[in-house]
Design a protein that fits this description.
Bound molecules: NADP nicotinamide-adenine-dinucleotide phosphate
Strand content: 25-35%
Radius of gyration: 17 Å
Distance between the termini: 14 Å
Shape: globular
Helix content: 10-25%
Number of strands: 9
Number of domains: 1
Order of helices and strands: EHEHHEEEHEHEEE
Strand order of the largest sheet: 5-4-3-2-6-1-7-9-8
CATH topology: Dihydrofolate Reductase, subunit A
Length: 221
């Protein structure tokens, strides 16, 4: 059994591989079909990793709303929502973000020296991010076996660079956005990785779900 949680990157991307409009901010890319598969991924997960910029720009995170998904989690003795694990270096957040009123558990995974207390900032647990592999192992020891990575691009690049993403779940949306906000930063340095197509299906309204699993070569796990 792996010492790390299974990590699935979940993103909605444009036909030209962007996840935000040229001006940045929230693209509101996914339609109803994307919302369904996003909620299903959240229902599968014990926790979600969220980049600090994504949280600052969106103000809140995605919640499971579908009653059957919520009931399924409760039936299995799980919390209604996965734990939101926010990743940051500076640890600075507007305490009035709607995120801090959302009905879920909030943890902060922070690189560099930790502040004295995260409780007053609305986080119930503060974890130190030194090396990704060890931090993921620490999350697993705290009970997170299935982790959804909700972006953004910088955070996705950091984890892909260390070959720690096990699965990619992309909703390709029928729009071209242009600009520089690719789902990976242009300058991202990522070692070559091969992916197996696990699933592909139309989601309606011109959207296509693509799910890939990382091929585990013996020399680069
Ligand atoms: N279409 C989609 O599905 C989707 C999903 C998510 C996001 N987005 C879009 O993506 C954009 C935001 O993405 P982004 O790439 O600019 O930012 P991001 O990855 O969300 O967040 C970057 C921030 O996260 C923290 N961080 C990232 N990697 C880290 C690491 N290795 N160690 C420690 N901290 C780390 C830092 O926080 P601090 O600044 O606190 O130090 C960094 O400034 C927004 O426009 C959003 O709308 C789209």
């Amino acid at each position: 059994m792996s010492p790390r949680p299974w990590l699935r990157l979940v993103l909605a991307v444009s036909l030209d591989g962007r996840l935000a409009p040229p001006s940045g901010g929230a693209a509101q890319l996914g339609g109803r079909g994307d919302r369904q598969v996003l909620e299903e991924a959240l229902a599968w997960a014990d926790g979600c990793l969220i980049g600090a910029s994504t949280l600052r720009q969106h103000g809140s995170t995605c919640l499971i709303h579908r009653p059957e998904l919520l009931e399924g989690r409760l039936h299995n003795g799980r919390s209604p929502q996965p734990i939101a694990v926010v990743v940051s270096r500076c640890g600075q957040f507007d305490p009035f973000l709607p995120f801090f009123d959302q009905p879920l558990e909030r943890w902060l995974l922070q690189a560099g020296p930790p502040p004295a207390s995260a409780a007053h900032d609305g986080f119930s647990r503060l974890l130190r991010l030194e090396a990704w592999r060890e931090s993921l192992e620490a999350l697993k020891q705290l009970g997170i076996e299935r982790l959804v990575l909700l972006g953004g691009a910088q955070l996705a690049a950091a984890l892909l660079a260390e070959q720690l993403v096990d699965e990619l779940q992309l909703t390709v949306c029928p729009v071209l956005l242009g600009g520089t906000h690719g789902w990976l930063p242009w300058a991202a340095v990522i070692p070559p990785q091969d992916w197996d197509l696990l699933e592909h299906r139309p989601l309606g309204e011109g959207e296509l779900l693509l799910r890939y699993g990382r091929v585990r070569h013996q020399d680069r796990q």
